[in-house]
UniProtKB/TrEMBL annotation, chain A:
The keyword Secreted does not apply. Keywords: Cell membrane, Membrane, Transmembrane, Transmembrane helix, Transport. This is ABC transporter permease. It comes from Streptomyces reniochalinae. GO terms for cellular component: plasma membrane. PANTHER family: ABC TRANSPORTER PERMEASE PROTEIN (PTHR43386:SF6), OLIGOPEPTIDE TRANSPORT SYSTEM PERMEASE PROTEIN APPC (PTHR43386). It is found in: Cell membrane. It comes from the Bacteria. The lineage of its organism: Bacteria, Bacillati, Actinomycetota, Actinomycetes, Kitasatosporales.
TrEMBL record, chain B:
It comes from Streptomyces reniochalinae. Pfam families: BPD_transp_1, BPD_transp_1_N. Signal peptide: none annotated. It is found in: Cell membrane. The chain crosses the membrane at residues 12-31, 96-118, 130-154, 174-192, 224-249, 275-300. Residues 94-297 form the ABC transmembrane type-1 domain. This is ABC transporter permease. Keywords: Cell membrane, Membrane, Transmembrane, Transmembrane helix, Transport. GO terms for biological process: transmembrane transport. It comes from the Bacteria.
């Protein structure tokens, strides 16, 4: 296992990117269909990808949705004028009315306001966890792939160990042991268990990039490790990491909501869609007031969908094999 | 092949030790099982010390871990909060969860493969784009959302099924929880099969099979599908982890007293033997599933040979 050059092991198929790369690997490296030749005018992979993205309706829809989500996460007051924490039990489970479009939940809080403020939590967790995972994973995985040897062996075993713990299972065990949990506890947990996924990808793509002729040429010309890494390997190895991270963003948002639903995620006063859905399904309170379940559920699903669509579009644009 | 199996089993050992140790440290280093036993009251120091000695809690962590693992391999998982051996809990919980997971896997394979073959053979047509978009939506909706919404719609609103599963959990009642559990993986199976089929349908051996006059159906099932199954099988193996995690959620929603339920009880009551015991078994299942996939590879693709 240590001797194989490429990242192997089936457990990397946990994300969309992983799944697709699995399929590609299975196709074999045989006579690959050349596809359309790239245009003569030399265009960098990035401007090429951007060119494709701008014409992809999936990307445009996802981009608009995400722009809106980010906007209301930063300024929720733009579309919600109330306080998500001001609740009156007298209005418990009241149906929607003028000014309170989504009705009230069990505690008598305005569901619309809570749905709007929930976006901030989800986006914060998703973006911060993804950044943490991407940075930590690509640094550790990249260094292991670049230097090889003992570093690499240790890191590979470490990723194997972390892959043995499914995220939700780990969350149940780890997070339940911590007393009070904020957004940052959840982010830290996701980074702790999530980095090996990116590390594997980064390691594999650095090993592939390292064997390229231009990298060997740079080495022959006397480039140092730092220059090789930043100027030659990084630009050519970062694309798979970006794809994995983008798709992971959506799944991390779903993970936070799932953990909150299970009662080991975010706690009040933090407004979380997952916690609200959990409250709605406690003792099936949604039986007579479906609005307390359906609105947060719709908001959560739409948010995850937007980020997964974005990841899908970015993958299509950055992976030339699929063109 | 035999040597390969042995080597893979040996490689599993450090991973198993690492994973279980990580969980052991988390449970025992962060929580205090003795204090938890007494609830809100402060324990009598002498009793607490006696209990600590009895459960080896006064020894260094690595020694505790060694003693615990020694016990586990002799079949002693300790006692749950009510004094019942953890192994007894497992004996009632695991069959339920396994049944639920099997229902999910069967749904996932049948529906996923059928959809995947249909769309893979019609790449770029409306059916294909429609199903592809649908899978994206299905992947995006978290399991607990589909679970609660289905429970509301089918169980409460339309009254088609019982909203909660009875303790005996007959197969009929597990169909909906199984479907909920299967949905996300089903979407992945569909996508994988589609990509794989679309790629292989242009292969030489398919053209040969068609040219020698085999019926379309036989070409698809015996030649094309069989060769396209390899990535799907890999996925199913790694999916065991996702399904286990999903089962925790699904069991919670539909009130199934399986592994998820027991694990949850252990966590709420801070009963470390239950938590560590169940998680250890789950980790073993996960590692074995991965090994099985690697071996299946060789069976499905004779070009892969292990030495």
């Amino acid at each position: 296992m240590t001797g194989t050059p490429a990242i192997e092991g089936p457990d990397e198929a946990e994300t969309l990117a992983g799944v697709e790369s699995e399929a590609e690997r299975a196709r074999g490296k045989g006579p690959s269909s050349p596809g359309r030749e790239p245009p003569e005018r030399a265009r960098s992979m990035w401007s090429d990808a951007w060119h494709d993205l701008r014409r992809n309706p999936v990307f445009l829809i996802a981009g608009l949705l995400i722009a809106f989500l980010v906007l209301i996460s930063v300024w929720p007051g733009l579309i919600a004028s109330r306080d998500p924490l001001s609740c009156r039990l007298g209005r418990s489970l009241d149906a929607s009315s003028a000014g309170h479009w989504f009705g009230f939940d069990t505690q008598g809080c305005d569901v619309y306001t809570r749905v709007v403020y929930g976006a901030r939590t989800s986006v914060t967790v998703g973006v911060c966890a993804t950044l943490g995972v991407a940075v930590l994973g690509s640094v550790l995985g990249g260094l292991a792939g670049f230097f090889g040897g003992v570093w690499d062996a240790v890191l590979s075993r470490l990723t194997d160990i972390f892959f043995g713990i499914p995220m939700i299972l780990g969350g149940l065990v780890f997070l339940s042991m911590t007393g009070s949990r904020s957004v940052w506890t959840v982010v830290a947990f996701i980074v702790l268990l999530g980095w090996p996924q990116v590390a594997r990808i980064a390691r594999g793509s650095v090993i592939t990039a390292k064997q390229n002729d231009y990298v060997l040429a740079a080495r022959a010309l006397g480039a140092g490790n730092a220059r090789m890494m930043t100027r030659h390997i990084l630009p050519n190895a970062i694309a798979p990491v970006i794809v994995t991270a983008t798709i992971a963003l959506g799944t991390y948002i779903a993970l936070e909501a799932t953990l909150s639903f299970l009662g080991v995620g975010l706690q009040p006063p933090t407004v979380s869609w997952g916690a609200d859905i959990s409250a709605a399904s406690q003792g099936m309170q949604f039986r007579n007031a479906p609005h307390i379940l359906l609105y947060p559920a719709a908001a959560l699903s739409l948010t995850v969908l937007a980020f997964i669509m974005l990841g899908d579009a970015v993958r299509d644009a950055l992976d030339p094999k699929l063109r | 092949m035999g040597r390969y199996v042995v080597r893979r089993l040996l490689q599993m050992v450090p991973v198993f030790i690492g994973t279980t140790f990580l969980i052991f440290v988390m449970v025992y280093a962060v929580g205090d099982p003795v204090n938890a036993m007494f609830g809100d009251r402060a324990p009598d120091p002498a009793t607490a010390a006696q209990l600590r000695a009895e459960f080896n809690l006064d020894k260094p962590l690595w020694q505790q871990y060694g003693l615990y693992m020694g016990k586990i391999f002799s079949g002693d998982f300790g006692n749950a909060f009510n004094g019942q051996p953890v192994t007894e809990l497992m004996a009632t919980a695991f069959p339920l969860t396994i049944r639920l997971t099997l229902v999910a896997v069967v749904i996932e394979i049948i529906v996923g493969l059928v959809l995947g073959v249909l769309t893979g053979l019609r790449r770029g047509r409306p059916v294909d784009s429609g199903v592809l978009m649908l899978t994206l939506v299905v992947i995006s909706v978290p399991t607990f959302v589909t679970g609660t919404v289905f429970q509301y719609l089918l169980g409460v609103r339309w009254g088609l099924i019982a909203p909660a599963v009875s303790p005996a959990a007959p197969l009929g009642q597990l169909l909906l929880p199984g479907l909920v559990l299967a949905l996300v993986s089903l979407a992945y199976v569909t996508r994988l099969t589609r990509t794989s089929i679309a790629e292989n349908s242009r292969a030489d051996y398919v053209r040969t099979a068609v040219a020698k006059g085999l019926p379309r159906r036989r070409v698809t099932v015996r030649h094309l599908l069989r060769n396209s199954l390899i990535p799907v099988v890999t996925f199913l193996g790694t999916d065991v982890g996702t399904l286990m995690a999903g089962a925790l959620v699904t069991e919670r929603i539909f009130n199934i007293h399986g592994v998820g339920f027991q694990l949850w009880q252990g966590i709420v009551r801070q009963n470390s033997p239950t938590v560590v015991g169940f998680v250890t078994v789950l980790v073993i299942v996960f590692l074995l599933a991965n090994l099985l996939v690697d071996l299946l590879y060789a069976v499905l693709d004779p070009r892969i040979r292990y030495v």
